[in-house]
UniProtKB/TrEMBL annotation:
<dbReference type="GO" id="GO:0097163">
    <property type="term" value="F:sulfur carrier activity"/>
</dbReference>
<dbReference type="GO" id="GO:0005737">
    <property type="term" value="C:cytoplasm"/>
</dbReference>
<dbReference type="GO" id="GO:0016783">
    <property type="term" value="F:sulfurtransferase activity"/>
</dbReference>
<dbReference type="InterPro" id="IPR003786">
    <property type="entry name" value="FdhD"/>
</dbReference>
<keyword id="KW-0963">Cytoplasm</keyword>
<dbReference type="Pfam" id="PF02634">
    <property type="entry name" value="FdhD-NarQ"/>
</dbReference>
<dbReference type="InterPro" id="IPR016193">
    <property type="entry name" value="Cytidine_deaminase-like"/>
</dbReference>
<dbReference type="GO" id="GO:0006777">
    <property type="term" value="P:Mo-molybdopterin cofactor biosynthetic process"/>
</dbReference>
<comment type="function">
    <text>Required for formate dehydrogenase (FDH) activity. Acts as a sulfur carrier protein that transfers sulfur from IscS to the molybdenum cofactor prior to its insertion into FDH.</text>
</comment>
<feature type="active site" description="Cysteine persulfide intermediate">
    <location>
        <position position="102"/>
    </location>
</feature>
<keyword id="KW-0501">Molybdenum cofactor biosynthesis</keyword>
<comment type="similarity">
    <text>Belongs to the FdhD family.</text>
</comment>
<protein>
    <recommendedName>
        <fullName>Sulfur carrier protein FdhD</fullName>
    </recommendedName>
</protein>
């Protein structure tokens, strides 16, 4: 909700409500995999999505017994994963607190920042024609942004329209929450639309879970375009005048602009 303060002249001024941001620890089998600054809602989705997008598990259903615990200094989200999967947590320890602008904070090895996430199949033909309608639905569905502003959103859409969306102050957190919300759904017929710039970590996360298309309103980084092209992922920016494909796979051949 909004508050009231005074200007230099003494006149009352309305202060907009601000988004909440808290440290969130993501814990698997009692071991902390990451501590991220995030919006403290949809936390079970956050844990499951992070586990999938970081390659800790291959399906969200592998994360069980999920509980979110509020502490005085933040939140802890706990889940159980198969013991063989728990080794991935130990191999990729991310115990540093990450600011909302970066999805790679706290990684142990620089090699992980540019790791190849695997090949994806070409995006469903004709899906690009549904991107603008999905954007309109995403904009209308951002209820938290209406309340406090400064919120990123990530949504999944297919030929039927926008399926679901998630919001967070961090763009990579919004994507992880979305992936977690999608569960074990077949992602081959759809794509992701996100309100932030397209960076390499977002391409990595999408590719790891088999997402074939990634759309945004902001230009991608060169590293994101290069990686999407190598993965076979379609990477597009929705501009006012046109939808611009920066990386686009057709019949097995990559086109990178």
């Amino acid at each position: 909700m909004s508050g009231v303060t005074t200007s230099k002249s003494g006149a009352p001024m309305t202060v907009d409500a601000l988004p909440e941001e808290q440290p969130v620890a993501l814990v698997f089998n009692g071991s902390t995999a990451a501590v991220m600054m995030a919006s403290p809602f949809d936390l079970p989705d956050f844990l499951r999505g992070f586990a999938c997008s970081e390659g800790i598990v291959t399906r969200g259903s592998e994360v069980t017994e999920v509980t979110a615990i509020r502490h005085e200094t933040g939140f802890e989200v706990r889940g159980r994963i198969p013991e063989e999967r728990a080794q991935a947590v130990d191999a990729r320890r991310r115990a540093a607190v990450g600011p909302v602008g970066c999805g790679l904070c706290g990684i142990d090895s620089l090699a992980q920042a540019s790791a190849f996430p695997g090949q994806v199949a070409p995006m469903e033909p004709g899906l690009m024609d549904h991107a603008r309608a999905a954007l309109a639905a995403l904009t209308a569905g951002q209820k938290r942004r209406e309340d406090v502003g400064a919120m990123h959103a990530a949504g999944f859409f297919d030929a039927t329209g926008l399926v679901t969306l998630r919001e967070d102050v961090g763009r990579h957190n919004a994507l992880d929450k979305l992936i977690g919300a999608l569960g074990d759904r077949d992602l081959s017929k759809g794509a992701v639309l996100i309100t932030s710039r397209l960076s390499v970590d977002l391409v990595q996360k999408c590719a790891r879970v088999g997402l074939r298309g990634l759309f945004s309103l902001s230009s991608p980084t060169r590293a994101a375009v290069d990686l999407a092209g190598r993965c076979g992922m379609t990477l597009c920016v929705i501009r006012r005048e046109a939808i611009v494909p920066y990386a686009h796979a057709q019949t097995g051949k990559e086109t990178v602009l």
